[in-house]
Amino acid sequence: MKKQYRVTAGKVTVETAVGPGRALIDIFQGNILPADVPQEQIDTELRLGTIEEVMAEKSAPSTTDSDGSTDDGANVPPPSTEELVPPELPQGMSVPTTLEWVNAVPEEVHDRAEVALNAETGAGGKNRSTLIEQLQEIFEATMPEGEGTDEGAGAGA
User: Which of 1, 78, 112, 131 could form a disulfide with 102 if both were Cys (CB 3.0 to 4.6 A apart)?
Assistant: First the structure.
């Protein structure tokens, strides 16, 4: 039985066959990766926790739209932001691997930096000062507009 992988992050970008060539496409949370994604990319996404292995299901028949294209469900839009759960930090990662995990999904970098920062500084965290500094920089640099405080405004002037 062929292995299948479901996206657990907001989305992942994978290489797959498109027409006669290959292209990078976004696969959104909850959807199954195409079967031809390179194994090296699957291994990386598994290590980062952005996908999970699932039992292969019988394939549902695809539907044909009025324009003749098929809808196999491979690119369903993401759920609304309110439905997304915070990413979960895999345990026991090195500093470089933690930073790779934080930056793995561009639209989740801020949330992932916060999760990793809380895990690193919280009870049971390793409190690695170099990692904490880097996570704080990423967290602050990716702060959505209108959030945060004005502390340090005008610093260095």
Answer: 112
